[in-house]
Amino acid sequence: MTDIGEAGRSLRSGRTTSREFTEASLAAAAALDGDLAAFVVLDPDGALEAADAADEAIAAGRDLGPLMGVPVAIKDIVDAAGMPTRCGSPAYPATPAAADATLVRRLRRGGAVIVGKTTTHELACGVYSPPVSNPWDLSRIPGGSSGGSGAAVAAGIVPMAIGSDTGGSIRIPASLCGTVGLKATYGRVSRAGVAALAWSLDHLGPLTSTVEGCAASLEVLAGPDPLDPSASSRPVPQYSSGLDRGVDGLRIGVLGGAPLEPMQPDVAETFAASADLLGGQGAAMVGVEVAELEHGLAAEFGIVAPEAGAYHRELVRSRPDQIDPGIRTLLVAGLMLEPEHYFKALEARRAIAEALRRAFVRNRLDALITPTLPATAAPKDADDFRFGDSAEPVTLAYVRTTGPFNLSGLPALSVPAGFDRDGLPIGLQIAAGPFDEETALRVGACFEAAAGTRARRPPIHASG
Question: Mean of the pLDDT values across residues 420-448?
Fold first, then answer.
């Protein structure tokens, strides 16, 4: 499956049709998903009907937007009329949703072809996404909770899939599966019609095969929504228009200290090489430390547990045996926590957000880079990472580098940066100021072009 930009150009030139793209996507899903388990449901009839409608629009000279005629997938916490929303859990019924989530309406209005729904870690609460396998190594996890979306894009089944991100759940699978993933500013994409994990931290966004595809997707997904009071009313820029501007003259912070350590050596080397590459493209690279990030995990989980417990209160009371024991423990703990603990976590979040704001202002930064994750894809049966003589739970290792940008609400983009000695992808995270997705995407596009990581494909990948 080609990327969004190439697909759009092929469709508009008449070199191919949306039906042909969609049939190829459905065939790839049928061929590969026995290994990957990236999808929970496919909708061939609905997808082909949408593809034919897109072809008719193209033939009539109507341009519906950058996703017109492009096959896409959505995470199974997002309502799509006619398909169930199971949230990866047997506790949720198989009843089809009655209406589309706002972002699904925007996709359909833009002519996108929804081929199906992708596997999520149960209740969008985890970094493994079982039973999904990583296309680079089937014995490894794809990350989560948007693991199905990451695997589907990495394997070339679709060029874009929707993910959600509460502590890193777009960027974690993007990094582990070698795709691009964008968590835009909090409120940039409506969450109406989407099951929550923690409402004050949840973000929706795209996983794509290229930065250009991410920019095009955000143009369709972003915007105000009366159904979501947290959705921003700010105008939506043409994100794709500035991707070729390069980084010459930008000041880019290079995060050090907490929360990066410990880190796998291959990740540390790739991160250092990534900073050098951007510096070689003309950016001024500035070393930055933010001491408050040491408390990021405590703040993140101090908010997630009570908010998730409150959202799933009825589920915990009525069907506790149908919830994974580890997730159930988190939800019950959230319900039992005294309110003062939640308020302290909110205070810590404010302190972290303010510390990041000061770091941008004091250092006159346009963007800030970190390794997306301190480690590559864990084996499916691994509970911990070994960092030298110390061990750290896989979940905590992944969330400590991504969670700060949920706490602050800042936009953060993950782009493929290289590979470890086992051939597993490593991601570079690029954060920017509030509602400045344009700069994060601009830096990402420059890095993508200079790094040349797009040419390498995983062993499990659609042909063509």
Answer: 98
What is the 8-class DSSP label of residue 222?
A: B
Q: Is the dihedral of CA 346, 413, 218, 121 positive or negative?
A: negative
Length of the chain: 464
Backbone angles phi, psi at 107, to 5 degrees: -65, -45
Catalytic residue among 25, 89, 145, 209: 145
Q: Determine which helix (DSSP H) or strand (DSSP E) holds 348, and give its type and residue range.
A: helix 339-362
Residue 190 burial (CB < 10 Å; 0-12/13-18/19+)? buried
- Mean pLDDT (the chain, rounded): 97
In order, the DSSP letters of 273-333 are HHHHHHHHTT-EEEEEE-GGGGGHHHHHHHHHHHHHHHHTHHHHHH-GGGS-HHHHHHHHH
Tokens representing 39 are: 């999808």
Q: Which helix (H) or strand (E) element contains residue 113?
A: strand 113-118
Burial of 245 (0-12, 13-18, 19+ CB in 10 A): middle
List the structure tokens of 324: 């994974």
Q: Say what the pTM is.
A: 0.97
Known catalytic residue: 75? Answer: yes
Residue with tokens 């693991």: 147
Active-site residue among 25, 169, 232, 240?
169
Instruction: Say whether 145 is catalytic.
Output: yes
Rounded-to-integer distance, Cα 422 and Cα 388, Å:
18
Q: What percent of the chain has pLDDT over 90?
A: 97
Are the C-beta atoms of residues 431 and 368 closer than 8 Å to each other? yes
**Please, are residues 66 and 219 in contact by the beta-carbon 8 Å criterion?**
yes
> Which one of the listed residues 18, 75, 117, 133 is annotated catalytic?
75
Strand, coil or helix: 120: coil
Residue with tokens 């960027």: 171
Tokens 């997306």, residue located: 372
Please state, in angstroms and rounded to a whole number, the distance separating the CA atoms of residues 7 and 256: 39
C-alpha angle 431/227/109, rounded to 5°?
Answer: 80
pLDDT tens figures, 35-69: 999 999 999 999 999 999 999 999 999 999 999 99
Q: Is 209 a catalytic residue?
A: no
> Which DSSP letter does residue 377 get?
P
Strand order across the 39-42 sheet: 39-42, 113-118, 71-75, 160-165, 203-208, 180-183, 412-419, 425-432, 367-371, 251-256, 284-289
pLDDT of 43 reads 98
Look at residues 334, 342, 350, 327 and name the one whose alpha carbon lies nearest to residue 404: 350
What pLDDT, on the 0 to 100 scale, is given for residue 464? 63
Cα(49)–Cα(277) distance, integer angstroms: 45
